[in-house]
Amino acid sequence: MAGTIAIKNGHVFDPLNEIKGDRMDIYIRNGKVVTELSAAELKDAKEIDASGKTVMPGGVDSHSHVAGAKVNVGRMMRPEDHYKFYQKKTPLTHSGCGYSVPSVYLGGYEYSKMGYTTVFEAAVPPMEARHTHEEMRSTPMIDMGGYLVLGNNWFLMRYLKEGDIEKAAAYIAWMMRTHKTYGIKCVNPAGVENWGWGENVNSLDQANIHFEVTPEDIIKGLTELNEMLGFSMPLHLHANNLGHPGCWEITRDSLKIPKSIKAKPKDPNVEWAETKVNPKRHESVYLTHCQFNAFGGTSWRDFESGVKGITDYVNSHEHVVMDSGCVPFGDATVMTGDGPAIHDLYVLTGNKWSNTDVECECGSGVLPFTYLKSNPVHSVQWAMGLEVLLYVKDAWKSIMTTDSPNGGPFIKYPQVIAWLMSNKARQDTLNECHKWANDRAGLASETREMTLNEIAIVTRANAARTIGLSHSKGSLGIGADGDVAIYDINPAKLEVSDYESIIRAFENAAYTVKGGEVVCQKGEIVAIPEKKTYYTDITVNAEEEKKMIDDVKNWFKYYTIGFSNYPTPEKYLANPTPIKIDAEV
Amino acid sequence: MAEVILKPTGNFDLTVEAEVVTPDNFAGKSAQDIGKLLVWQGPKQFPISDFFEVRGNGGSSAQDTTIVIDGDVIRVKRIGEGMTAGKIRVKGSTGMHTGTAMIGGEILVEGNTDSWPGMEMKGGLLHITGNALDHVGSAYRGSWRGMTGGRIVIDGNAGNQVGGGMSGGEIIVGGNVDNFCGTRINGGLIAVKGNAIRTVGAEMTGGTLVIGGTIDKFTPGFMQTAVESDLKFNDIECPGKYKKFAGDYAIPQKGKGVLYVSAQNNEDL
User: Fold this and answer.
1) Nearest-CA distance from B269 to chain A in Å?
2) N or C: which terminus of chain A has fewer CB atoms within 10 Å of its end residue's CB?
3) ipTM for the complex?
4) Please, which residues have CB within 8 angstroms of residue A414's CB and are 6 or more apart in sequence?
5) Nearest CA in chain B to A76
6) pLDDT tens-digit map of B23-37
7) B142 and A77 in contact by Cβ < 8 A?
8) For every residue of A146-208, which 3-state class applies, written as one string?
9) Are A79 and B140 a contacting pair at CB < 8 A?
């Protein structure tokens, strides 16, 4: 029977159900986790003997740049990223290439090999939504969705300036549905608009040009709107001044803005899998790639880690969750909606650089980058990315990412896991690094070693909970999607000092199960499963929506495309899966 | 030393990707086994024996193996790619990417090569007795990390972008070069006995360039620092009087590269 499987005797780590390595069986029927299979079903079902192995829910990446216009610019401008890293086609799989920016097919396969089954694209500019969906549709093996970039949107900035919150809410709801996207992304609020004039913003109370709204206005406005509309995920924030020495302070101050805003995710039209832990978010802001937002010092000469300033704040407050943006060294391609930040990197490195102004909506920049252990700043950044995860006491406040491919490609996740689990792994790398890694960051004296349970939290359970997908992802509770990763790690015999074995185990999952079907085995793709594309469909007051659309049509004269060509129809999505929310506004 | 002779016999209407033709891959194999190694032609793989008559067995190690290609193989790419030791002698001309990324050993081409000889080479010796086309010892497209070590000797002329992005090793060109010789280099030595056209050393941030002939259009962004005679870089000698320049001042990393230009042939500089 398709999608029916019995996974027996594995050491199960299911943080949302507080299962921490207990030996138990997992049963999946028709793609969903069930309590048991009947004798007749068991006879037909595939059975995996997972004894001596680690069983986790399928991995969930809540922030990765894998599809869309800027990703494709990264591919086009980097032939040198392709020719040494490629895969031949097989009867089942496509060929593909690209180390830091893989082709869509290769990207899907590589995620699946590591046991990941769900990945969210971190930034979808509205005008590029069609392109993004075309790439997501062609990315095999993983369920997907994307966050809509709204932090420098002309309409929203105008509505926020005028205090027209109802229209702003109607606009966001309409935009999500129009572009088939999942949540609100806010990149360098007010600053990217200024970049259109060759400038940036440097403080939270600096009003930008023409629109005269401040980063604080935008962060406050968007978090309020996010809760008013009841989104499943919090506002996804890429703070101002990113990548500049001393930026940690503005990041911490940005996190203070939504402190008083209560998280109010509405109940969407989904059936919830059983969980012991509250599966809903209580955070009103999701800070992304904290490492890049946590630079200390005042210049590159006195550069140091500013992570502690942020983690201290996160440890003592309940309204923030964040992902790390780790730097695992080696080749990377930096790509973000933060055009001015990438321009500064261009000036610093002289590398080839691409910059785009997305009309009335946002911007972006792309640049190849190599992180070297011998470089003082890079070696501190490496330490900082790990500090973000290790300094946060409660793993439920953090998510492991590399902001792929900004800090490094996602295929380096196993290496990052090894550093988190093994102090020896960190010390060994520290010994190869520039001495700044030791002197300018606190990582060297941090002895915490994450458990497999904590790894399960930061690589799946919390990512799913944070973005509101724990109704079906990141858990093995009854009713959850049958997405499972089985790793060749015996928790009873695990020696974390042998970190190479941890890397090997997480690089190639023994089995990746998607919807109850084995799709990848020991690094080999064995089946191409169906995939889903999530988006948020919010119902708002029809009258308010009509007034808003009149506004939008009026301003569409500033666009280079026609209004009727603006939306992304559902046919661009693989198995469109709307998360329906009635906002009651 | 064991000698494996490859005599071209096949149909090369589509180019053949022959990265398996290295002493490393041939060592320890009989002529028959060598003939079974696969090469790509277009979308398909074929055994080497479809294209070459193979005579002689490989030696016990790459070091002990010499490959002789007995004839022109201008439609065969990537000969000697990544080889670490041993020798390849081509009695004729070769196709693109000859000796790409080679690490050690020696390749002798008794003829011309197409573009990309010694691309991103790390060590060893690549000697071309005739002419080479573009991108000798340079970086791959999109990259500025070119040759890092070893030596490329071209007795004839070379095309555009000799040593682009080079950071180590030596390139010696007996004849002339075209445009962009030594662009973006940050280390190593390029010695050209003949003439160059333009953009010599553009955006260089280190390394040494010597042009023994004339430069048609001198690169702006260079400043003369001295006049020196009879240059000597280890065993490489450049006799005569040279004007010494520092550059390229047109980019932020100012003036760390060295460019020598024949004084006699460039009186107007």
Assistant:
1) 29
2) N
3) 0.86
4) A114, A502, A503, A504, A505, A506, A507
5) B142
6) 999 999 999 999 999
7) yes
8) EEEECCCCHHHHHHHHHCCHHHHHHHHHHHHHHHCCCEEEEECCCHHHHHCCCCCCCCCCCCC
9) yes
